[in-house]
Specification:
- By secondary structure, this protein is α+β, with helices and mostly antiparallel strands.
- The protein has four domains: 24-95, Histidine-containing Protein, Chain: A (2-Layer Sandwich), CATH 3.30.1340.30; 106-174, Roll (SH3 type barrels); 178-243, SH3 type barrels (Roll); 249-385, endopeptidase domain like (from Nostoc punctiforme) (endopeptidase fold (from Nostoc punctiforme), Alpha-Beta Complex).
- It is 23% helix and 35% strand.
- It has a six-stranded antiparallel β-sheet with strand order 19-24-20-21-22-23. Strands 9-8-7-4-10 form a five-stranded antiparallel β-sheet. A five-stranded antiparallel β-sheet has the order 16-15-14-11-17.
């Protein structure tokens, strides 16, 4: 009888413990689900902000909230959410940049075009690219890699070999320097003025560097990592002149046409090889305008146009394609007469007119935006007014 009572008591104890653990598991799962929804509210677009936090159940009185964010306010809201729910927790959220980066919280891209990857790994997806002289915020670091943010707020990992790290004072010194931008589609910088100079680096449209002096029609320049080189003066535009360009449809389409036939590259944003939104971004950047990185982002900004009536469209407008206005996957620049130029396979011209041989039935036009009437509105910033470029 005693053994039976002991077994019954043991069974009841096990059942109680199981019920408690099950209740904890259900509660922990529901809290995680709520946290997931909160993160989506605070950071609806993970491409331009970091809020990578999660809960770790220590099976003790408190859970651990850990991870990282570049938004102090978002961290505060997560902490407040836990507090309001009377949840005991240990705060292990890093706010980036932190001590891992030190005082070198800025960088300049040093290659003609440097790759941004989704993860700190050479085999990771190419998410975007940055041109020489692009100012970058440094958020985090691992051996060989840095997590950076571009002027259009896009976030990715870049190989340490592709950047020059700078302090806040050093980036301000760069802003005051005599700078110029490369205005040709492709070219090279050489180690001495004249035809016999040896190549120091290749260059592409949009590369930015400092000018030290002029020698017989050549500019003596300094790359962001300090390499001296020479470029023919005609191939460069001063930073001030570039910043003060008044972009027109004619100038935009002139640049776009110079890239006809250039190959498509997923993640590409340079005149070497380019994806659809990278093509649009590069064309507008050549005229001193910074656009959002991806097509689905670009479609949020600018003046909306009634694209159902072709007469409403003007050259330079952006045309967006996809399943719907909420599921955009492609973008091109309107030329006129139903034609648009875009990067798909290669840079070429297609038509939105079903009766035109250039029409592609699988391209479903779902939106249009006018950029030239919306300069310096959200998502469309002139370089001369961007805090990362202009003189302090």
């Amino acid at each position: 009888m005693k053994n039976l009572l002991k077994k019954t008591a043991s069974l009841l104890l096990l059942l109680c413990i199981s019920a408690i653990l099950l209740a904890q598991t259900v509660s922990y799962k529901s809290i995680n689900e709520e946290l997931t929804q909160l993160k989506k509210q605070l950071v609806p677009d993970k491409r331009v902000a970091i809020l990578e936090v999660g809960l770790k159940d220590t099976l003790q009185q408190a859970i651990v909230i850990l991870g990282e964010t570049d938004l102090p306010d978002a961290k505060n809201k997560v902490i407040q959410w836990l507090t309001d729910k009377n949840i005991s927790f240990i705060d292990s959220i890093r706010v980036l940049p932190d001590g891992a980066v030190g005082d070198k919280t800025w960088a300049l891209a040093t290659l003609s075009v440097a790759n941004l990857r989704a993860k700190p790994d050479d085999a990771s997806e190419l998410s975007s690219q940055v041109l020489m002289g692009t100012p970058l915020k440094v958020l985090d670091t691992t051996p060989k890699w840095y997590r950076v943010q571009t002027p259009e707020n896009y976030i990715g990992w870049i190989d340490a070999a592709g950047i020059q790290l700078l302090t806040a004072n050093e980036i301000n010194t760069w802003k005051k320097a005599n700078r110029c931008i490369y205005n040709r589609i492709t070219g090279v910088a050489i180690d001495a003025p004249g035809k016999k100079g040896k190549v120091v680096t290749d260059l592409i449209l949009g590369d930015l560097f400092e000018v030290e002096s002029i020698h017989k029609g050549y500019l003596k320049i300094k790359t962001p990592d300090g390499r001296p080189a020479y470029i023919h003066k005609s191939e460069c535009t001063s930073f001030d002149d570039w910043c003060n360009i008044e972009p027109t449809a004619k100038s935009l389409l002139s640049v776009a046409s110079q890239m006809m036939g250039f190959p498509y590259l997923w993640g590409g944003t340079s005149s070497k090889a380019i994806d659809c939104s990278g093509f649009v971004k590069t064309v507008y950047y050549s005229q001193g305008v910074i656009l959002a990185r991806d097509a689905s982002q670009q479609a949020r900004y600018g003046e909306p146009i009634d694209f159902t009536n072709r007469e409403n469209l003007q050259p330079g407008d952006l045309l967006f394609f996809g399943r719907s206005a909420q599921r955009i996957s492609h973008v091109g620049i309107y030329i006129g007469n139903g034609d648009f130029i875009h990067s798909s396979g290669k840079v070429h011209i297609s038509s939105i007119d079903p009766n035109d041989p250039k029409y592609v039935a699988t391209r479903n036009n779902v939106a249009a935006r006018r950029i030239l009437n919306a300069l310096n509105t959200e998502g469309i910033v002139r370089v001369k007014d961007h805090e990362w470029y202009k003189h302090p």
